[in-house]
Design brief:
With 540 residues, this protein is an alpha+beta fold. It contains 20 helices and 21 strands. α5 runs antiparallel to α9.
């Protein structure tokens, strides 16, 4: 039996603030901002920059991201989109699948740094140099590599081989080992330039020139003009209700509606009566995911996403009626595939209901501001293309577009990749209750729903909800399930036609969640973090 009810770690609690991220030193950077008199936005910028140092394979200035900011206890809500566009010179006819997977042709315009600074400029309180200082200090003075760091470094050998500079940064000086202290002095200089000159230093100054020159020399597409044109966009969140709660996440053109639609469909079942991770509960979850995933593939990349129909309760009821309680259906899978499977689930027709969207971290302060952020390089170490003299590794976000011209997500100049990142917040009676999010590419939309259900349906505390075993749905009837799910349950799913693949008991394949909750009576803040990676929550 785990030592903390059904969790191996305690829920971390405080009254002045809480920070949860994929690394304890990044969480500490956020706490330092709060202790210096900053708010949750200051803390989030400090965490984002620090992750570039301590989790460079998932996070960095060369990546992209999305942010959900709630203020005034949850009554004021904003989405910040800092997803970069495909370069103006991008051309699907002049790139191979391997080139788009990594290397200088794989990168979209970096957005993370512009997003951090846009949020800070609008809502932050501390000087820019103060919130960037923890990351700068760690990059200059060094940080020890964890066992999980080393695992990702070693598994990314092929990616890091795509540029000599990436290999020098992350595999040099005898290679990685747990406990080795590494420094990133080029990155520290880059962040110091940004601390002094703001976003212009990165997007229009010498850093932009260095990025464009390196990419151009290597045969890539990203130019100074692409960087200069980048601008974060403020949007309104997409929202549903679920058993008396409001759930807010990313709006189109992002794919969080798959997760929200999944919850809408499941609201019509007695999940609590079936029980947590039982055959019935998991079967209906899997089938709801398949329906919502088909809609994502059909509608997420269209110019006018029928979001009102997709998120209507009437549409959810029509989708629910398509689920067979005794038999698994056939799924198209996570990505576009022109080869249709026999009996494959097709998208629904949400337009009929018009009248009725990686690493994750979160920060909260005592004033009622909560910031939930998901950001990514695409895959571990992104494109594997590092820009000499900057410490920056560029993303491979173009990998998440398709070269097939029949795909609605085909690679086009200026297009934003269809991202699954879904930082999400839950409110009760207008006030903030819960923030949850995870990395995991296409699995984000499934893992987020499972963690939310763990709290809202099954009454798990925050840490239990993050640690609980999870499943992931793929093409046809294939399902990955962590081995901590009962063998009897997995056999029951197989009897209903699911092709169950048992994965490790704590697998990064099903994400690495981070969360924050607020006690509605006392106002106490609670943090939870995922042991599947180096996640850590801290509070003051």
């Amino acid at each position: 039996m785990p030592p903390h009810r059904n969790a191996y770690r305690p829920v971390v609690m405080g009254t002045r603030g809480v920070v949860t991220s994929a690394h304890p030193l990044a969480s500490m950077a956020g706490i330092r901002a709060l202790l210096a008199g900053g708010n949750a936005v200051d803390a989030a910028v400090a965490v984002g920059a620090a992750l570039n140092v301590v989790e460079p394979f998932m996070s960095g200035a060369g990546g992209i991201g999305l942010m959900l900011v709630s203020r005034d206890g949850g009554r004021e809500r904003h989405v910040l989109d800092f997803i970069g566009h495909a370069p103006a010179a991008a051309d699907r006819t002049r790139v191979t699948e391997d080139e788009i997977a990594g290397g200088p042709k794989a990168c979209a315009t970096p957005g993370n740094l512009g997003g951090w600074l846009a949020a800070h400029e609008r809502f932050g309180r501390l000087p820019r140099a103060t919130v960037l200082e923890p990351a700068i200090s760690m990059a200059e003075q060094g940080v020890p590599l964890t066992w999980k760091n080393v695992e990702f470094f070693e598994n990314a050998g092929q990616t890091l081989a795509r540029s000599a500079e990436a290999g020098r940064l992350y595999l040099g000086d005898g290679g990685p080992r747990p406990g080795k202290v590494v420094t990133y002095r080029d990155l520290a200089r880059t962040l110091r330039q940004v601390a002094e000159g703001g976003a212009d230093a990165f997007y229009r100054g010498p850093i932009a020139k260095a990025i464009a020159a390196a990419v151009r020399e290597a045969g890539g597409w990203l130019e100074e003009e692409d960087l200069a044109r980048f601008a974060p966009v403020w949007r309104e969140p997409a929202t549903i209700t679920y058993r008396g709660h409001e759930i807010a996440s990313m709006p189109p053109p992002f794919a969080a509606f798959q997760m929200l639609e999944t919850l809408n469909v499941l609201e019509g079942y007695d999940l609590r009566g079936w029980g947590h991770n039982t055959v019935d509960a998991l079967h209906h979850l899997i089938e709801a995911i398949k329906l919502a995933s088909a809609d994502r593939l059909a509608y997420a990349y269209t110019p006018d996403v029928p979001i009102r129909g997709l998120l209507s309760k009437a549409y959810a009821a029509s989708q629910r009626a398509r689920i067979r309680s005794d038999r698994a259906s056939v799924s198209e899978g996570e990505r576009f595939n022109r080869d249709t499977l026999a009996g494959q689930i097709r998208e629904g027709h949400p337009a009929r209901f018009e009248n009725e969207q990686t690493t994750h971290f979160a920060c909260a302060d005592a004033e009622g501001t909560v910031v939930s952020v998901t950001q990514t390089l695409g895959v571990p170490f992104g494109s594997g293309f590092a820009v000499p003299g900057t410490g920056i590794v560029l993303n491979n976000i173009l990998k998440w577009m398709d070269l097939d011209p029949e795909s609605p997500n085909v690679l086009k100049p200026g297009r934003k990749a269809g991202t699954m990142m879904s930082p999400t917040q839950v409110y009760r009676d207008g006030g903030f209750l819960l923030s949850i999010g995870t990395p995991g590419s296409y699995g984000i939309l499934q893992t987020t729903a499972q963690m939310l259900l763990n709290v809202l349906e099954f009454g798990l505390n925050l840490q239990e909800a993050i640690e609980a075993p999870r499943a992931r749905v793929y093409r046809d009837r294939v399902v990955d399930a962590e081995s901590r799910i009962s063998p009897d349950v997995l056999d029951g799913l197989r009897r209903r036609g699911h092709q169950v693949n048992v994965i490790a008991d704590w697998s990064w394949i099903v994400g690495g969640g981070q969360g924050i909750m607020r006690d509605s009576e006392s106002g106490a803040l609670m943090g939870g973090a995922d042991p599947r990676r180096d996640g850590y929550a801290l509070a003051v």
